């Protein structure tokens, strides 16, 4: 698992208030009820702070799974 | 003159049991100036001004999904937004960003039946919370 994915999972666990082991590779807003609209906003803000980046409004709307988040963060970090 | 050109308008109070919440507000001396169902948000709304205290907007979920689903998960009631009036929405948003605040649009401008179809929009301000911006005509 990459450093970016590890850090993303740590932030998700904290913001979504779920155990790190419950964050499966295919986790998304569709299959995790705790990942609601309000927590999504807080998650995006927390990831922005963790990685020192800023998401666009479209990214905030579209990045709805761990997989998509990690891909976007890799692109922004490269 | 404050930097963002915003004027306080009301507190937004979400409740799953609006009858009891209204009873409390009336006990405090608030009146119900208007009550409507807002189909764009799928919520029931009561605007409750007071002669000497800030106005409260009581917001209760209607049938089906709505914007309060995420707000009322931990508690049956919550003061979840502060509303400010703006003469110029874009100017206020730019001023917030220029002031160094991270602003995320939660809900873009749409007409609000409770405010005579004046447009309202919602934003998450990092380190502050959710604000509603009510546009002047």
UniProtKB/TrEMBL annotation, chain A:
A Pfam family reported for this protein in Swiss-Prot or TrEMBL: PP-binding
Residue ranges constituting the Carrier domain according to the UniProt record: 2-77
What is the name of this protein? Acyl carrier protein
Could you tell me which species this protein originates from?
A: Nitrosospira multiformis
Tell me the organism's taxonomic lineage.
Bacteria, Pseudomonadati, Pseudomonadota, Betaproteobacteria, Nitrosomonadales
UniProtKB/TrEMBL annotation, chain B:
Task: Using the record's annotation, list all stretches that form the VOC domain.
Answer: 7-136
Protein name, please? Methylmalonyl-CoA epimerase
Q: Which InterPro entries match?
A: Glyas_Bleomycin-R_OHBP_Dase, VOC_core
From what organism does this protein derive? Nitrosospira multiformis
Name the SUPFAM superfamilies on file: Glyoxalase/Bleomycin resistance protein/Dihydroxybiphenyl dioxygenase (SSF54593)
């Amino acid at each position: 698992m990459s450093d970016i994915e590890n850090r993303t999972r740590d932030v998700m666990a904290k913001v979504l208030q779920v155990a790190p082991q419950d964050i499966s590779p295919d986790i998304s807003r569709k299959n995790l009820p705790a990942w609601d609209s309000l927590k999504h906003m807080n998650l995006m803000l927390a990831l922005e702070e963790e990685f020192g980046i800023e998401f666009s409004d479209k990214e905030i709307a579209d990045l709805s799974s761990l997989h998509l988040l990690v891909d976007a963060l890799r692109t922004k970090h490269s | 003159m404050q930097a963002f050109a915003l004027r306080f308008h009301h507190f937004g109070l979400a409740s799953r049991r609006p009858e009891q919440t209204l009873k409390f507000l009336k006990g405090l001396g608030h009146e119900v100036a208007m009550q409507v169902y807002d189909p764009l948000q799928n919520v029931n709304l009561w605007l409750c001004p007071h002669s000497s205290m800030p106005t409260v907007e009581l917001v209760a979920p209607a049938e089906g999904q709505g914007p309060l689903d995420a707000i009322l998960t931990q508690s049956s009631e919550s003061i979840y937004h502060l509303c400010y009036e703006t003469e110029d929405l874009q100017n206020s948003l730019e001023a917030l960003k220029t002031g160094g605040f991270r602003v995320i649009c939660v809900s873009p401008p749409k007409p609000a039946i409770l405010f005579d179809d004046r447009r309202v929009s919602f934003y998450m301000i990092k380190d502050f919370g959710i604000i509603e911006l009510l546009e002047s005509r």
